[in-house]
Specification:
The protein has 526 residues and is of the alpha/beta class. It is built from 17 helices and 22 strands. Helices cover 33% and strands 24% of the residues. It has a 7-stranded parallel sheet with strand order 8-7-6-9-10-11-12, sandwiched between helices. The structure holds nicotinamide-adenine-dinucleotide (NAD). It is an enzyme of class 1 (oxidoreductase).
Length: 526
């Protein structure tokens, strides 16, 4: 049975899910040394933000397959080290979307109705109703910066309040925006027209101080700004200036450039609402995060496609269904390439042709290919997480391209290989089963399965017979034979499916036959 270690407190329901699939140990007060000592026994590690999953921990995790973060941020995990070791890092990005969206709505209402100030005033014994004149959200313009998981949920909720939604997100299309009731606009237009601006982008080089002096000046004097995303997206110095100069009406912040914002002048403003990074803190979000990662671990242990892997391309169920046949084809083609290559592979050019070329992400196929090329020749396990890193380390240049047409097939994968001493190419397709349809430009039609022999020869009378006879002499039965040739008397390729293994000495005898240039025997399991 697989073993899972949980080192931060996670929801009971998540633990119950994990217990259905593995032997679970919960130890929430481990020192770094204890963790390093013990991690070797486990197949999966489940953490929240408390445990520091350093390179040392990862290197000590000899049996570790998965590091799961029951939540969103993975700042506490050395993802690079995990990738090098082929360990998947999974999280639960969906778990907090509703929770953060609801917090945003809460802050919006708090600003619009001055709820915090009114509360404080009542506690002081005051009863000043006119002081807290608010505004309705209905008919106000909400500007959402970043219309991803959380931004979309905010949009849906704000629509229910009768707000008009503008969104700025250069990475999504108009249809997706419309589907959540938002209209895409440029950032400047959003800032100028919105009564409330709310930020839901990740903190990146591009979004750092996305909202600074220029942007705040563009906003209406009556407008509010909310940040439930990450500190640093709003330039706090500029925000303080804007508040001091009454350039905007107020702000609500759940995140800060420095947390906690102990000495910040922001604490002094009555029209600023502050919460201590609790956007994701609900019972439901924590429960869902634990359940989501438990299911993710189960899927990976069962060999199913993971959905929230940070260090490899994730596939949704639909994409997996469509790509599955080609994943199988790439496994077979990878194994063939590794056995066909006479020496070090220098480069691989993978061409995806036909219908498959329209698929958004094909990286998982290229990774599967690399995994199957590299795994048979390396001691360290190569999987789809570390395949690119290991290929790069071994100096293999991998390029990927697409071609809309695939001649007579629906989809074709063509791989051009360059090794130290030669170049070769194979093409494969999938029609009910994986098929190799071209080797070095010669058409064939063979299922890559079982014992296969590929012979390069000159198409002259007697050569095919001599090869058959030679194998027969050694009691090797030919089940299928296919020849692909350019022209009579020219270069040709023969693919043989044989019932027995072809030993090295027999292969040498075949190679020494007249007109035979090369012969390779390979085993491709079913
Ligand atoms: P997401 O990846 O689903 O959405 C982010 C969106 O931002 C995407 O649609 C992307 O296209 C867009 N985007 C990226 N760069 C942009 C740019 N330069 N300009 C405009 N749009 C851009 O992320 P999410 O799950 O919705 O999370 C949004 C934010 O909320 C993140 O910063 C996340 O860290 C934060 N978050 C905060 C809390 C909290 O406790 N307050 C909890 C969870 C998430």
């Amino acid at each position: 049975m697989k073993k899972i270690l949980v080192t931060d407190p996670i929801n009971e329901k998540g633990i119950k899910e994990l217990e259905k699939i593995a032997d679970v140990t919960v130890k929430t007060d481990m020192s770094q040394e204890e963790l390093i000592d013990e991690i070797g026994k486990y197949n999966a590690l489940v953490v929240r933000s408390g445990t520091k999953v350093t390179r040392e921990v990862i290197e000590a995790g000899k049996n570790l397959e998965i590091i799961a973060r029951a939540g969103v941020g993975v700042d506490n995990i050395d993802v690079g080290a995990a990738t090098e070791k082929g360990i998947m890092v999974v999280n639960a990005p969906e778990s907090t979307s509703i929770t953060v969206a609801e917090h945003t709505m809460g802050l919006m209402l708090t600003l619009a109705r001055k709820i915090v100030l009114a509360d404080k005033s009542v506690r002081r014994g005051e009863w000043n109703r006119s002081k807290f004149m608010g505004i309705e959200l209905k008919d106000k313009v909400l500007g959402i910066i970043g219309l991803g998981r959380i931004g979309s949920q905010v949009s849906l909720r704000a629509r229910a309040f009768g707000m008009k939604i503008l969104a700025y997100d250069p990475y999504i299309d108009e249809e997706s925006a419309e589907s959540v009731g938002a209209t895409l606009v440029e950032l400047d237009e959003l800032l100028k027209k919105s009564d409330i601006v709310t930020i839901h982008v990740p903190l990146t080089k591009e979004t750092k101080h996305l909202i600074s002096r220029r942007e705040l000046k563009m906003m209406k004097n009556s407008a509010y700004i909310i940040n439930c995303a990450r500190g640093g997206i709003i330039d706090e110095e500029a925000l303080i200036e804007a508040l001091e100069n009454n350039e905007i009406a107020g702000a609500a912040l759940d995140v800060f450039e420095e947390e906690p914002p102990s000495d910040s002048p922001l604490l002094e403003f009555d029209n600023v609402v502050l919460t201590p990074h609790i956007g994701a803190s609900t019972v439901e979000a924590q429960r869902d995060a634990a359940i989501i990662v438990a299911n993710e671990i189960k899927r990976i242990f069962d060999g199913k496609p993971p959905q929230n892997v940070i260090n490899m391309p994730s596939l949704d169920r639909e994409s997996f269904k469509l790509l599955k046949p080609y994943i199988e084809l790439c496994e077979k083609m990878g194994l063939m390439i590794t056995q066909l290559a006479p020496d070090k592979i220098k480069s691989l050019n993978v061409v995806y042709a036909g219908e498959i070329s329209e698929f958004k992400s094909l990286d998982v196929l290229t990774r599967t290919l690399l995994q199957n090329i590299l795994n048979p020749i390396l001691t360290e396990p190569v999987n789809i997480v570390n395949a690119h890193t290991i290929a790069e380390k071994r100096g293999i240049v991998v390029t990927e391209s697409r071609r809309p047409k695939a001649d007579n097939y629906k989809s074709v994968i063509q791989i051009d290989v360059e090794t130290k001493s030669e170049k070769f190419s194979i093409e494969g397709t999938y029609t009910n089963k994986p098929k190799i349809i071209n080797i070095n430009g010669y058409k064939v039609d063979v299922e890559p399965k079982g014992n296969m022999m590929i012979v390069k020869y000159r198409d002259l009378p007697g050569t095919i017979g001599a090869i058959g006879t030679k194998l027969g002499e050694h009691d090797i039965n030919i089940a299928i034979m296919q020849v692909g040739r350019e022209k009579p008397g020219g270069e040709a390729v023969m693919v043989l499916k044989v019932d027995q293994k072809v030993p090295e000495d027999v292969l040498e005898e075949v190679k020494s036959l007249k007109n035979v240039e090369d012969a390779v025997f390979m085993i491709l399991n079913n």
